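Task card 7
Instruction: Convert sequence to structure tokens.
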Amino acid sequence: MRKFKNICLLACALVVFSSCELDNYDAPNVSLHGSFIDNVTGELVEQDIVGGTKIIFVERGFKNPEEQNMVVKTDGTYRNELMFAGEYDLYFNESNFVLPDTLKRKELKQRENKLDFIVQPYIRITNKKIERIGNKIVATFSIKPTVDKKVRQVGLFAHVDYVVGDRFKLVESKQDVNAIVANETEYKLEIDLNSNNGSKLKPNKEYYFRVGALIDGNGARYNYASAVKITI
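Output:
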């Protein structure tokens, strides 16, 4: 029995030793963070937390480097703590702003590295007002496209979490536009609480409501105003 135990201990030691020998790669040692900033207003360009803008990054210096991506937060900021020191190319395939003509190149040297993107959002949303009127949530807002394309849709979205949006909602009210929108055009959307009461929206509970607009473009994502919290 003692001989059997010794054999087991030796086997375990060999497994631990071999694991240490194989797992000798350097750990991530730098971070990268920043914001997406409107090139005119200086405000953060808000995003969808699911299916929104992603930063695609490729580390230079490798023969066949893999593409990786960072998800942008709802408020238009991002942070990646698991990166390695080196030089990276960064770009986008899908976004709610005009895509840059060239790659962004960034060398990460310090433990903390900051990189902001100054961008032109496809649509700016202004004069937002979301409130409860009777048994309805009523949103009024204006949109101003910055590109010569049709506006596909506007929407009002509701959820228990502040990341509410087109991809993350319990209830929505949408209006198809499918037209060129000139100057600042005002829209009004409503969510009827009676028809949703008890099923998706429960009384005496807080919900977040957010308005957005979508340009008609390949790979385009919703532009948003900040969410409003209302107890229904």
